[in-house]
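As promised in the previous annual report, we have extended the structural survey to additional targets. Below is the entry for Epimerase.
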Amino acid sequence: MRVLITGGSGFVGQRLCRLLVEQGHEVQVVSRSPHQVWDSLPSSCDIRDSAQAFIESPPDALVNLAGESIAAKRWSDEQKAKLINSRVAATEQLVALCERLKANGQPLPKVMVSGSAMGYYGDQGKRVVTEETMPNDEFAHRLCKKWEASARPIEAMGVRLAIVRIGLVLEAGGGSLEKMLPPFKMGLGGRFGSGEQFMPWIHRDDLVAAILFLINQEGLSGAFNGSAPHPVTNATFTKTLAKQLNRPAIFPVPAVILKAGFGEMSRLLLTGADMRPARLEEAGFSFQYPTLDKALEAIL
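The corresponding structure token record, generated without further manual editing, is:
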């Protein structure tokens, strides 16, 4: 199978590329700077600067993971636009590729697995959140809504579309733990605000496995929550991480400090959703790391 990936050089994309290559698949990667990512991907990956560059070698499947980091900078109006545009533009590239393939009479991909995020639901308090839950209208939701909408034209061409609303991705060497581990290892960790906000999370290996599952299961389309079946509150996450590191976690960060430091972006830390992977589990997907303690034990 030939798989074209946007965001292939990212934290999730790198692992996905390696696993696909190990399984004998042909991997195509879209990167704005191919020469800068060669060292981070398997040598057999075909890396080009646009999706259109692959018009002569049509992919069998598309995986769309590209997008500016949502927590990289404070959310100014300019940064919000960049967050939205980076996701929409990458998605529209894939749609445009399919339009050209169709116009040329070339075979279309059978499926696109397109990224989204838990932010689609916005702040949901303590209610259990499935794919059917109505979202809370705020910036994170509007970003994800536009991201998802930009992928939907592909369905009219007969390409199956599966959207993955991804939780906090956990693994060593990057993801959500990258900035959290240093203070926790020094015994300086603590909950954010009240600690009652939920943190949907997923081990990177489970997320990659879920993406492959959605590629291979021909009957699956629509939105899927990409998170482990046992989300936890921020307070529980903090205690579990500290326990795994054998360190105290007695330095909570007050909400007022986070709001002052990060502005609207502080909602990423102070709000959440008790998000469950209802549709993945209904489809028969099995998580290797269903609980946080098991995931952190494997990682740490």
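The mean pLDDT is 96. The domain at 2-169+200-228+274-288 is CATH 3.40.50.720 (Rossmann fold). These points will be discussed at the next consortium meeting with the crystallography subgroup.
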